[in-house]
Amino acid sequence: MSELKYLDKKGTFTLDNPDLTSYMYFPLANEAGMMSAITPDLGGDIKLDQNTFLLEPVSSENLHNNKSTRNFWVYVDGKGAWSATGRSAKQQAKLFDDDKEQVKLTAGIMWHKVERQTDEMGLKAELTTFVPYTQDKVELTKVTITNTADTTQKITSTVAIPMYARSASNIRDHRHVTSLLHRTFTIKDGIMIYPTLTFDERGHNKNTVFYGALAKEMVNGKMESPVSFCPVTEEFIGEGGNFENPYYVAKNKPLPYTEGQEVDGYETVAAIRFNDCELKPGESRSYVIALEYGTSKEELESIGNKYIDVDVFDKYLEETKNYWQDKINVSYNSADKNFDNWMHWVNFQPMLRRIYGCSFLPHHDYGKGGRGWRDLWQDCLALLIMEPKQVRQMLIDNFGGVRFDGTNATIIGSKQGEFIADRNNITRVWMDHGAWPYLTTELYMQQTGDVEFLVEENSYFKDPQVCRGEEKDMIWNDEQGNKQLAENNEVYAGTVLEHMLIQHLTAFYDVGEHNHIRLRGADWNDGLDMAAKRGESVAFTALYGGNLKNLAKDIKAYAEKTGNETVLLAKELLILLNVDKTVFDRIDEKKQVLDAYCETVKHTISGEKVNVRCDELCSIIDSMGDWIGEHIRTTEWTTDKDGDGWFNGYYDNSGNAVEGDFPTGIRMMLTGQVFTVMADVATDEQVVAIAKSADKYLYDEAIGGYRLNTDFKEVKTDLGRLFGFAFGHKENGAVFSHMATMYANSLYHRGYAKEGYKVINSLFKHCDNYSKSGIYPGIPEYVSQRGRGMYHYLTGAASWMLLTVLNEMYGVKGEYGALKLKPQLLKEQFENGKASATCMFNGKNITVTYKNDKALDAGQYSVKEIYIDGNKYGDCDTVLKEDVMKLNDTVNIVAILD
User: Fold this and answer.
1) Directed axis angle between helix 670-678 and helix 737-749, to 10°?
2) Tens digit of pLDDT for each residue in 648-672?
3) What integer pLDDT is reported at residue 379 of this predicted model?
4) Taking all residues of the chain, what is their mean pLDDT, rounded to a whole number?
5) Which of 96, 150, 189, 466 has CA 20 to 30 A from 31's CA?
6) CATH number (domain holding residue 264)
7) Positive/negative CA dihedral, 655, 660, 662, 667
8) Is the pLDDT reported for residue 425 higher than 80?
9) Which DSSP letter does residue 669 get?
10) Which residues are in the Glycosyl hydrolase 94 supersandwich domain (predicted)?
11) Are residues 713 and 822 in the same domain?
């Protein structure tokens, strides 16, 4: 297998023979909603949403099964037909021969180029594809065919792209019937489909979307239109033919349709023929193809006229490259240039997730688009680093999804802050959901110093689900909308602080028989979904505890900055706050507190607010956090026969501890270690022990590092579906990037830089080794048992990796608006004694360069001096907030390590 090589410091890479690796795909998209996936042979698909696919939807297995690609055929007089994308029957048959065609991929952020050369045909093809950064819904490909033979060759060029033009649900649901809706037209520059109706789960509705495939060729410096067409699939491929051996190409027959014809009720192919031409040795001919959406024939033609030109293509390609590079405003300069380039792609991945959601790439074949509750908050982590200006209001709006019982909406609308009641009234409660908004809000306040954010207000979400999913509000109806009402029937609004308190306090009392927070439907690990009755998540109980203690610090900072000694909270919260601490140990009484609160807020709330002293509130929630930490330390530490220990992270639906030394072998899960370390529940001695045990039982260098769990050797139906998966795949024991990255984050947070670096470097080295991972640069959701990166691009791991590398490894972080420099780089990461990071901080574009002239290792140094734009700032490790605000828009900071 070939080696992937970087060509610059911006993630551009090249790769020979990409066609010899299966399951690879590349994202191309824009912020107008155009979403493409493309493979080395130009397979993949194009869509706007679940119901608007221009090319046929593909899952990962379709990538090698389908014969449908964005094909471009060249018929050479006297030699026969050749596919510029490699998708002819003849080329496929020779794929594993020693004399296979030479193929080279070069790609960068949001652009993709494949070069293919055949000695047999004497041709070279270069196919460059991208989606312009504009608001137009179009994908563009430029094809350049070059004669590499010693003699002049006559060629006939044909675009052949099957067009789907309907909902993904129609793959099996009325596939043929929906083709009867097609009204297909040949227009001057290509093929257009205007289905009469949409025919999917939404019902029968009049269609409003036009689909187009248009193309032109460059002849003597001018763009020329095609000469003929064939829009009907069965006609183009011929009886017995297929898309890898289509009749009209194989026989080099003129296509039978001209401009201005209509064919109704058939599967459509954009078969577009150009004039024959003669190419002298070394001479080239270029073509531009546009696959596009519009609201009318005129709009399709207008988009075509705008983009289908070689010079215009090149112009927009460069502008698109620059547009996305400008958005990636975080970069690194270390001794490992491959790591710096790999992180460039990781930094970009959260942007892809905002466009694609968790769907619409071949491995992400579940769901119908959109993002989940966790995604809203974790994607904001990256936004806070890369695009902070738009985050404040986004965070406020997102809090509108919280219910008054501490749970939250799980169906999220297309608009910011829009949450929708489940029409099927399906109860969904993930016990971890209440913890994530605080983590993102905390990062925001530390980055900006905006502790006044705590008293910003928003409404609450309301639907029939009440009492944390235990009951239904039978009085509530659609006419009341989906916002929580007070007794006066007015929409109630509370502070951000109040929202977060409700999320954490209700969880604190929502405990199982071991006094940890109930697992309910699942936690972060969606595969733990079969322990709703007696399951408990010790792991996330630890996180809630850590959050409570940190929130107390934030309230104190708010009081000190503003001088406000009290905060306004809904009167009902006093039920959860005015509880004697002795109740914390008594499970039944805790449940009674929660029941009393949930019953009070079941339908409407009073709307009354009370002033609560900040110091008293801090004392209460801090003591709750302390209690959680002590309870876990006391009850959940387990060891093996050698005395090596770790935390039990879960209880199953039988009420039994999940982790420990079992007769069938060691059972250890990474999640319980991550959050006990991250939340400061684990002591320093326990952190050391956890790292040792994780190395002993979870680490596997061959697949990129730390597995999510050991092999339980059981289909554990009293805990979750994940145990039905084969071990080493997805949530059952794979190297799951998200949790592995959070493990690294937790270790750095506690000052264990070498251990944290091992986690990140192991994952990076595996992903960076193309022959093992089989993926383009970036971090996948997980690594399979055989080492292949799976579910690439759309993973929350990217946000956490960005956060961990910048804030913890490079130590560029906020401290209530001040710039704190606390690097934990190992000496091997410095190049000639220097390492640097560039990022946005409080509206300033800063580059921080660390000078480590004594070649000290992490733990041996600290920042002793800071210089700003060449001038000494001070003998310190922090730039005060008021001084940060005075900095130039672009600033260079040098920090001396000693």
Assistant:
1) 30
2) 999 999 999 999 999 999 999 999 9
3) 86
4) 96
5) 189
6) 2.70.98.40
7) positive
8) no
9) B
10) 111-309
11) no
Distance of CA 311 to the CA centre of its chain: 34
**Bridge-based pairing state of the strands 411-412 and 419-420:** antiparallel
**Among 303, 36, 35, CA closest to 192:** 303
For residue 817, give its domain range: 810-897
Higher pLDDT, 268 or 174: 268
Single residue among 583, 606, 635 that ends a domain in this structure: 635
Q: Is pLDDT above 80 for 369?
A: no
736: which strand partners?
782
Q: Mind giving me the DSSP string for 437-494?
A: HHHHHHHHHHHH--GGGGG-EEE-B--SEEGGGTEE-SS--GGGTTB-BBTTSPBPEE
Task: Give me the mean pLDDT over the 535-540 stretch.
Answer: 98
- The Cβ of residue 750 has, within 10 Å, a number of other Cβ atoms equal to 18
484 vs 492: CA distance, rounded Å:
6
Q: How many residues does the chain have?
A: 898
Query: Cα separation of 693 and 287, whole Å?
Result: 59
- Cβ(331)–Cβ(837) under 8 Å? yes
Q: Are residues 549 and 406 in the same domain?
A: yes
Find out whether 848 and 895 touch, Cβ atoms under 8 Å.
yes
- Same structural domain for residues 300 and 391? no
User: What gap in Å lies between CA 728 and CA 527, rounded to an integer?
Assistant: 14
pLDDT at 423: 62
**Shared-domain flag, residues 736 and 872:** no
On the question of pLDDT at 525 being above 80, the answer is yes
Total domains in the chain come to: 4
3-state secondary structure of 770: helix
Do 493 and 452 lie in one domain? The reply is yes
With respect to residue 346, please indicate whether it lies within any of the assigned structural domains: no
The identity of residue 153, as a single letter, is Q
Q: Which amino acid is at 542?
A: A
Q: Per DSSP, which regions of 618-770 are E strands? A: 637-639, 645-647, 650-651, 660-662, 665-667, 699-700, 705-706, 735-736
- What secondary structure, in 3-state letters, does 389-444 show? HHHHHHHHHHHHHECCCCCECCEECCCCCCEECCCCCCCCCECCCCCHHHHHHHHH
Main-chain dihedrals φ then ψ at residue 518, nearest 5 degrees: -60, 145
Residues 6+ apart with CB under 8 A from 225: 188, 189, 216
Strand-strand pairing, 566-570 and 536-537:
unpaired
At residue 634, does pLDDT exceed 70? yes
How far from the centroid of its chain's Cα atoms is residue 754's Cα?
27
364 lies in some domain: no
Residues 723 and 850 in one domain: no
- The domain boundary, picked from 778, 798, 818, lies at 798
436: its two tokens: 């994530």
Give the pLDDT confidence of 760-818 residue by residue, as tens digits.
999 999 999 999 999 999 999 999 999 999 999 999 999 999 999 999 999 999 999 99
For residue 119, being part of any structural domain is answered with yes
Q: Which of 380-384, 411-415, 738-742, 829-833 has the lowest mean pLDDT?
A: 411-415
